[in-house]
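Quick start: read one record
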Amino acid sequence: MTYQPPVRDYAFLLRDVLELERYANLPAFADASMDVIDQVLEEAGRFTGEVLAPLNGVGDKQGCTWHADFTVTTPKGFKEAYRALVDGGWPALGSDPAYGGQGLPHVVNVAFSEMSSAANMAFSMYPGLTHGAYSAIHVGGTQAQKDLYLPKLASFEWGGTMNLTEPQCGTDLGLLRTKAVPQGDGTYKISGQKIWISSGEHDLTENIVHLVLARIEGAPAGTRGISLFIVPKFIPDKDGKPGVRNSVKFLGLEEKMGIHGNATCVIAHEESTGWLIGEENRGLNLMFVMMNEARLGVGVQGIAQASAAYQAAAEFAKDRLQGRSLTGPKNPDGPADPIIVHPDVRRMLMDMKAIVEGGRCFLSWTSLHGDLAEASPDEAVRQKGHDYMALMTPVLKGFLTDRGFQVCSDAMQVHGGSGFTEHFPVSQYLRDCRIALIYEGTNGIQALDLVGRKLAADGGRGVMGFFAELDAFVAANEPDEAMKPFTEGLAKAKGELQEATLWLMQNGLANPDNAGAASTDYLHLFGLTALAYMWAMMAKAAQAKIAAGDSDPLYAEKLAVGRYYVARVLPETSSRLTKLKTGAEVLMALPAAAF
């Protein structure tokens, strides 16, 4: 099976659904004409399909190798692919032109990110972490720090990481023990151990810039006393080139279920030299810039692995002969029919396709709002963009990775026993995808963040704005008979999401356990409703193209899959609402000792 990047699907989303050319008057979109975007998509498809995808299985089987001198070697072919990535200019796609970037809107970069991750998730994590480090320094660094580090990070000449987790603390960073001792010359000595550091050491770049959370001596306990430091593997010399080796020691590689091609390291900081970025004791604020970008990236990973798994399952279902169609042979000259004729196989494939394509639209739509939050001259548009980015981030991360993993599981089911072997690619997609539900804050944490923080932010302005947008879309398209399945389904789901939101407001404050018990169901209810909106927008765009005489079969396919989503997937909103309204009592009734 050969991975086929979704070039045509992204062209449809960016041209016909999101209509990017509407924003051509904005400086940030000036270079993002559809002619340019079409070229970017075509080249992205070629690079990811021809260069990265063939190395996916290689990386899975070989993994990374740790050496006694505390260095790590990546799988065969990764260095050459990384050099091709840099030479192709892909790292600079969405970066600031002031530091060597191309400055294209992030919504365009999302397309490349999905293709890259679907082709080779473990490989794509190296540049992904680097861009996160770039973003944190871009937001919080001094001008000297920006001038030194950003050109190297934007070009991916240097790599980047996040150093958060420690043996005794994961999500609860208030338990962090790594300490920072000021040296009186603007530097700090950093001491402590960090674990699960993706891309923590490798042979792809000449330097690696670690962003490390640590507590300055005398700082307050808990999260209020955490600062962020730049700790390079090699300390830059006066010319900005890698100089002396810092005392950052790579103790070993984690043995993992998947993403074997990415070096997940245990790192010891043994009085390593670091520089404070941002203000003392305000490190989490800056780290969240990196974490939120990473959370969106993890949502992309969920859809990317799902997309690759779906493609493998669809190809297998068309080739595998097993049994006969219930309505008579469809392959009368063969010994059996291909399994795609069976309704239950179709159910799984349609579930997959509906989630993958709806999720892809959701990621692109949200990313566009993120671009407008920075680029629009209209203050209301900028505010809405910031509201949506905050509100949707936990939904994108939690919902799309949960559903992405389910797609990978269904893809294995379509393969039957073949899928459980390593002769077919779906077992790797399933193994690789599983981490996406865990890192950058588990999906349970995302759900708590959604109901505990994001809904109430700014008096609920974000979620109320989203409800108003859905209402306006339904009202505008209700008269269109062809849109009725979509408008009716969306209106019903929005009503249930609004009812769930009001229930949380009334019952979550009275008993916080009610909010915690409802949070995951609420997140899924939100995600299902958001995808209903995405499918409605895609249906509207597809119908307009058909009405204009366009015979591209993609448009009829979109309508068929969208109707399936509304009829067979979206009804889950009702059960999610019913479950979340049961509250915490039945969930918390069993004593801890009984487990």
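The longest strand covers residues 264-277.
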